[in-house]
Target: NADH:ubiquinone reductase (non-electrogenic)
Amino acid sequence: MSFNIVRDNKKRVVIVGGGFGGLKLANKLKKSNFQVVLIDKNNYHQFPPLIYQVASAGMEPTSISFPFRKIFQHRKNFYFRMAEVRAIFPERNIIQTSIGKIEYDYLILAAGTTTNFYGNRHIEEEAIPMKNVSEAMGLRNALLANFERALTCATKQEQQELLNVVVVGGGATGVEVAGVLSEMKKFVLPNDYPDMSSNLMHVYLIEAGPRLLAGMSEKSSAHAEQFLREMGVNILLNKKVVDYRNHKVVLEDGSAIATRTFIWVSGITGVPIRNMDSSLIGRGGRIKVNEYNQVIGLNNVFAIGDQCIQLTDKKYPNGHPQLAQVAIQQGELLAKNLVRYEKGMKMKPFHYRNLGSMATVGRNRAVAEFNKVKMQGWFAWIMWLVVHLRSILGVRNKVIVLLNWIWNYLTYDQSMRMIVYARKAKEIRDREIIEATTHLGDDLMQEQQQKEQQKVERSE
Ligand SMILES: Cc1cc2nc3c(=O)[nH]c(=O)nc-3n(C[C@H](O)[C@H](O)[C@H](O)COP(=O)(O)OP(=O)(O)OC[C@H]3O[C@@H](n4cnc5c(N)ncnc54)[C@H](O)[C@@H]3O)c2cc1C
Model:
């Protein structure tokens, strides 16, 4: 397998990851003189802020995803390749991917983050993460299948395990998913399962810190907590989850909550890339970059968005929050900086313009902060709807999402509660097995080790 991209006289920019940052960068390089190669492990761009609505069967995955090939139709000097990036060899300007190696003149790492299980292998195996569309679909299927089984299972204990939902992580995602699940309990369960009391369903939200929404002000945290408690969510603060055993989430203080729907949205870590010098990895598994998003010590390798940590912005000495706007703004500036760099001009340093942050808790309930202005309740909720609707890619998706929201608001109902598992064709299953064990970059890593070994021997 190979990339099959002809090297022409243009400098090649390889972008890894077509999320908010990578996509903005690729779009902004449209009129540049570069050959642009975008690599993503999926063939579509996704919109994480609405993933929780997919997980709760409130929205179809296609409404918040957009295929790269459609976005870049008719684009010149542009190539998309669906592949997973595995290793980097900066001294040779090569990256290793699941479909082969590719050389670059400039490399931009924008692969975002993955769920952090903090080294707890057991929790990693048992918990349901909710970081992307595919995981959200997995959660939706598990949730609905558990409701179905709760009607027919043999014992009361099993029924309770099936109807308890435990969400671990009190950040924006945890708050949003707990809120939407409590709405499911109130509006969906009584209609869909009239022969089962909806009072049996319990939603727990567990947070290790002292408050929810740690990234927002204490006032917003308090409002979010109040909203969720009013909606019937059981909130446990200062509680650390240490294990999941026998269908029970086990807490550090020895207590346990029975559940078969164990949702883990408790933390993220930068997507790991093999052969990346460990001294370049900072807090949260993020790649250290300078004020121009240049990976420290590597002139032609850059990292943007969630995957990088930049400590040079005076207002954010500990790094920027991992938010869509940071990735978008970094992608936008980097497009300009690459052109400047090529022309031998000085690049411009990145300074984040904070456009605010918000989290929705349920219908008519949200918290929002714009600099010193803080709001909550209905007005914040409307702001949340408008901001997110504007940000979704594609007119079709905007219209579908809006109609969906109006329908749900008026009818208190979503109509997508089907349990659907995609069966992969044998050809795809076989290919995945091969790809999982090949193209790991071991050949170049061995070469590198041999060279280092020879150097040591010569110096002795
Ligand atoms: C559930 C959820 C809700 C969120 N809600 C909000 C919100 O309301 N507001 C907000 O501002 N932020 C929100 N965020 C955070 C926001 O989504 C991120 O900050 C933003 O997506 C970061 O953009 P990025 O371009 O750095 O990475 P991403 O958008 O994560 O994009 C990374 C891309 O890289 C690809 N990729 C990953 N690994 C590889 C690999 N090895 N090889 C090739 N491709 C790879 C992925 O498929 C993806 O397309 C939310 C995040 C989540 C998970």
